[in-house]
Amino acid sequence: MTTMMNNITVSQLYQKARETYGFPVVGITGSNGKTTTKAMLSVILRRAGSVLEFPDHADTPERISAVLKDIKPVDWIVTKVGAHQTGHVADIASFLQPDLGIITNIGEAHLAQHGSMEKIALEKQALLDVLDPRKGIAILNGDNEFTRQMAKSVRCQTRLFGLSEHSDYYASNWDYLGPDGMAITVQRKRAASLRLHLPIYSIGDVYNLLAAISAADSLGISDAMISDALENDFILPKGRGRLITQNGLKILDDTHDSTPQSLLKSSKSLINFRPYSDRLFLIMGDMTELGDQAEQLHRMTGHYLAAMPIDYYFMVGKFAPTVAQALSIRIKDPHRVKAFATVSDVIDHLTGLIQKNDTLLIEGGENLQMSEIVNVLCHENSDRKKI
Question: What are the start-end ranges of the H helices in 311-370?
Answer without folding.
Answer: 320-328, 343-351
